[in-house]
Amino acid sequence: MAKLKSVFKMNHAQKDVGKLAHALCDTMLKDLEGAKRPTLEAVKCSLDNAIYNSKVGFFTPGDKRVKTELNVSSVQKMARSVFLLDIFLENLKAGGVNTKREVYYRAKGWIKKDPKLRPIDFEVQEESDSIISFLCDALEVYREELNCVANDRGGQTYSQQLIVTENLPDGTKAHIDLGSLGTTPFQPKNRPQSFSLKMKSKIKFCLVVESEGTANTLVTNGITKRNNCIVVGAQGVPSNGVRGWVKTIQDQLKIPVFFFGDLDAYTLQNIYRTLKSGSAASLIRNKNFCAPDVKFLGVLPEDVKKYDLDCYSVKEKDASEARSLKKARDALQNDPFFKDAKNKKLSQVLKWLLKNKIRCEQQALFSVDPKDITVPEKIILDKIKNKIYI
Amino acid sequence: MSKIKTSSTAEYFSKNLQQVGFSSPLKAVLTTLKEAVDNSLDACEDSGILPHIKINISKIGKGSSRNTDLIKIKIEDNGPGLSVQDLPAVFGEYLASSKFGKGQCSRGQQGIGISAATTWAQLTNATGVCVESKTKNMQQAVSMVIDVDIKNNKGLVKKKTSIKWNKKKHGLKASFVIDGRVQLNGDGGLITYLEGTSLVNPHLELDYTLLENDPVSVKRVSDVIPKVPPPTLPHPHTMKLGEFITYSHLYGKISLSKFLKTGFSRISDATIKEISKKNKIKSSLLNLSLPKLLDSDFKKVFEALQEATLMNPQTNSVLIIGEKALEQSIHRIGDVDFFSVVTRKPRICDFKPVVIEVAMARLNDTKGKDENSLQLLRFANRVPLQFDKSSCALTKAVESVNWKAYGLQQSKNSVPSGPYVLAISMTSPFIKFKNASKETVDASEELVEEIRKALIQTGQKLGRYIRKEKKEFDLERKIQHIEKFAPILVNALVKITKAPIKRKKKAELGLMKILGRDAKNAEAELTQAKEKLK
Asked: Which ipTM value was assigned to this complex?
């Protein structure tokens, strides 16, 4: 078999996707020859199969598996899975990469060329996306190991001291000195494990800011000039790339990492928790795609009181806000992350939000002293200094 | 103080035609047609004739009132015809009816409708109705124009002549020229009315031409003339005190006990004895002639009757269309791919005998109508009800059923949607309408519940059919899956594993065996569903 060239180098021993795929297909073929129903098995990636152990620090999969046995209802899914697997194997042979959308169009291209394939045509990208996720779960590989990469989103990084070395697929290396970029951010690719990090001088902390806009403002106003630090814009719910990148910073530089964002249920549950412990939807990937040591710097309930921050009331009449409150209540009851004793303080914040039905945005810090544009930076530094975080 | 004067019935109705269905130019055309067709059908049934009705509605000019057209409505039937003496009474006199207060399941009840149509023609076009009629005893047909003498409530005959009918032995032709406007489709449309009428009258043969449209011919699907059961007497529990006293006036000078026995159902000598003993009603009062009774006497007897436990009225006075006739008739409303009919046994609701029948059909071709909206047809004594849908008992019952359970789409507490026709027929000798124009049936809890039961039965039949359809679709899908996806799966597996052709063929055979077993199971499920449907 031709050697497959994955552009994605993992920290763990890279799996031989070609061998895995061949073995899987051979077993299926043998089953068919014996008129036995072949099955495709995958880890069940959902919250009811997520185990959280604070010592491990992230969600790991439980014993539940999703088993797809061949029958008239699943034959389409199986045919599509094996068809897409073939495309990925060809891609790996050639060393090419594709995004999910590109894979969708490549699949459509093949189908257009061969009328016999028309029955498995994908009407919308979601159909091919779900097959890709299923294949990754079945082979227990990262999507990137199939040379299927995500669009880069979030992770804009600023620092005067950080030097990044990127190991490129062709074996060469690229060196980026972030201090030479001015206020232009460095944006890590979705393969953060291919980066090696160095510090020109000792970096004291890394600050991950929920809003990319606010991260850029802090930098423009001089936070990275006055402090040896790294500032990362998360741009909402952290993508795989952001999570992997923050983990790389945490593991390679061994510096404290703080998250600064809104004080609301959505930020705590969807943004911070995903950054810290991964997500239930990607149980097999969490090991390399979350930063368990990250601390929640704020906005905290005590900041609201201390700095007299402006808040919005959360109205149960508003459908989306009511949903978010319901989700928060569910999280307190069912989410192993919030149920864990080590995260008690975080669950207390959630309870506080449910009780007071208010939310406070990270930008509210700008209201503390409107004359001083550096006031948010001062508050952040004060909180880090006085250990006012969770 | 201004002088008090008495008005005739005709005078009253001529000023209040909106109460009897002439509230707008649109409704005027429909109501005129409806009253004439009702009379023709009733007359044919009374004489044992299979009805054949011809209708022609045309626009002949501009109406004299604002925003109206001058509409000519011609209706011809093969009924028994009316004698020269009866013609002015029927067409020109209010409350002249052979059916008034009779307690029969006939379409017409009071003798108001057709006289109101003549009045409308007279008020808007200064001429009443042109009628031609011939009974089997007449040598020649008679032709006349009839106006309503509004002051004296009498029919006025004009231009009376004898005419020769070539082939027809008996029948009636009526022609109204009125100010109106024509609506063909929709809830108040003429086509909706005619389709509905032919649905609940399988024995009707109908030819109609509406405006410039092509003539339509609806053939009869049953040769059985419905036999309207003999009249029934009212049950005392259905009356109010005032009605009770007014009703007594119809019986002249007979004694109270005789009035109770002959004027009501379910009152016997034993009942009278029991209530007089219990309520201390003296026998002298029972033997007193009705005109001598004081209002307080009527009240005492009436209250005693209300307190008494009386048997429910008999149910043999209701007319049933029947499931077979409905099944035959439902195909006349369009290209139907599924139908379900239910005829409930006659029941007593609010002490009145009632029978509810439901026919539901799914149309293959909705003929330009909105295919997502269900067409609800309501009938009371086989007359379509086309206005004021929302407050009608029949609509309320439809809204109370959970149609989603039977595979239909439905918003909460509303009529379901889809390319369906849902026809509900209620027949009873005593239908309680909300108004004189008979557009809405009053919704009592008991009646709504009875209609609801009929609808649930219909829904269950429909649900079984939809489930069978789903199984058929499943089987088809499963067979298609085998043919479509199996070769792709095997080819991809062979390509990845680089397996030889021998393995490929073996795998294909194995796959066909597996999927063939699934298809067999699906077929068995379908057979089971079909059995259930039977």
From this structure: 0.77
